[in-house]
Structures are given as C-alpha cells and as structure tokens.
Amino acid sequence: MRFAASVSLAVVILGCCAFLYADDSVADKSSSIAVDAEVDASEETTLVEEAVDAEELAETSLTLSVLIKNIQQQGDIRLALFDQSDAFPKQIKAVRKSKGKVRDATARVQIEDVLPGQYAIAFFQDVNGDGTLNRSKLGIPSEPYGFSNNARGLFGPPSFKAASFDFSADSATLELRLP
Known about the structure:
Immunoglobulin-like; 179 residues; disordered N terminus; 8-stranded mixed beta sheet; alpha+beta; 3 helices
C-alpha cells in the first residue's frame, strides 16, 4: 500500500512539473531552433574533423609486409594483426586480417593502412582451405601456426608482450617462421 501511494505521488508531481514547463516550451521555440542550429554546426565540425583525420591516416599509414618461411605444405596463410593485449590472439578482435598463398615453402602477406605503433601477429596455415584453425578433440591446433617474434607459449599462445613488435617505416617488413 505504501509503495502504491508513493508511486501515485510521483506521478502527480511529474504531471505538475510537465504542466508547469509546458508553457515555457511553447514560448521558447526560438531558443530551441537556435540550439538545433548549434547542434548542426557541431555535426559539420565533426565531419570536417573526420575528413582531416582520414587525410592524416593516408599520409601516415604504411603497408606491413610479412614473409613467412619454413612452410611444409600447400595452402593459404591466414594472418591477424592485433594492437591490444586483451584482444590477442582472438581472431575476431584483430584490427586487420589478411591472407596469402604459399609458394615454394614461403608466403608473403601484405597488410595495408597500418599506423606506426606496437602490434602482435597470430597466423596459421589453412592446409584444408576451410578458413579456420582446425583443432583436435583436446583443443590442440592440428594445422601449423605461429606468432610474431616467433614467440611460443608454454601451454597456449604466448603473451602479447612476447609477440609484440614496434612497427614504423623503418620496420615495414617482418620475417617469421613456422616451427
């Protein structure tokens, strides 16, 4: 009973507030239009800023070239690039993904529009061409895989720190190996 009374009181108070402010909202249509104009102007500024950011990205982004060696079988190499430790090595959280064909026991994979910074790579050889890293019933990968810095984990993938590298114009090519 006490709950119903307090809810009813709140409805009455809200109704009164709405009634009190109803006249003000009718009288202030011109100020509402001015506020809308300010919002439109800020949206235009945001669009201009985004265009400038896109131009800066085009000027500073680079192509990362990854050469993977020691490939024993034919099939595609699928590669994922990560910029955060909490995302590594979950393919779905990669900032960029790419694939390359195996030729003469090597594969070259290009990743475009990469900004300078710290990254880690996880890759695998898609031997059967199904697009996924196949695993045994125990969850152990059954297709060849590797990480940047040729890092290895003890019971699972290596840490982001172990696999991370600094990417810049001076380090635009990485050479990795399948174990």
